Amino acid sequence: MTDIWTPIEVGHLALKNRLVMAPMTRSRAAPDGTPGPLAAAYYAQRAGLGLLVSEGTQPSDAGQGYIFTPGIYTDRHVAGWRAVTSAVHEAGSRLFIQLMHVGRVSHPDNTPGHALGVAPSAVAPNDQMFTLEGMKPIPEPRALTTDEIARTVEDFRHAARRAIEAGADGVEIHGANGYLVQQFFAPNANLRTDRYGGGIENRARFAVEVARAIAEEIGGERTGIRLSPGATLGSLDEGPEAPDLYRHLVGELDKLGLAYIHVMHLGNEALLADIRRLWSRALIVNRPGRAVQGVGSDIAAGRADLESYGQLVLSTPDFPARLKSGAAMNPADKATFYGGGAEGYTDYPVLSGEAA
Question: Which sequence ranges are marked TM in the entry (predicted)?
Fold first, then answer.
């Protein structure tokens, strides 16, 4: 019987188990976007999982929205990430770097050159953003021109190449959580009347173009994508056509030979079943808030090939060992999720050798 401990091939990788570390923003990079000095230890501590997906990492200056998030487009970024990938590989796991362009979820106080955020259309998200001066309303973004959309696709391509140069095993496109790729899906954020707006094929086009460019550059077997059907983060409303948009999108992505789709699942079981049916390669399912007692249930039921976990892995570096032993997980300290140093980052306790 297939369970979380059954090895699996995903893309070009043989993974030792079916547990995945979900991407989680930690805001501990240097101001220039270079991963911080503790990043290698943080990821290596969690190498008991078969696959680690990094925190959201901007593919360009324009992709940054939060303070102290990492990038993967300069030589310094590559050098910083190389230390991380080397540590993860030495510890026995694999790492995909998640490419995150935040789009309109941005504030000029946080961006290089104090640039305004960019988006499918000039529609503000009616939300606030943390800055070094505290919380501030997110301003109305600037709408991307068609030429800028093409350049943004190339930014993703370039960042994917740099990630491989840094030793990453692949990249995950962040198409979820209210950021740029998902903004194109949502009619209340995408008011365009050109080939990137209107019907579901047009609204899915940008995601497909990004995925195609990256697959061309580094290989589909090194490319994954994260989706969150129905998510309303960043004030998005995907509308009643959303399930049909995702069915179309998954069908188009399937033609590209990507390694996996990573679904943040919010409860539409019928759509998840359709994604499973339409997708011919690995499917990772993340159910936010899933209890430890439910670990492995989607794999056992055939709804997923792998399962990803966020806060449980953040707080419990030896998550797989504790699953096997039945030991309790560490509580997560939400006050240290973002920014800071080792506290709440690399200092969570692990089981003693005897207990493990």
Answer: none
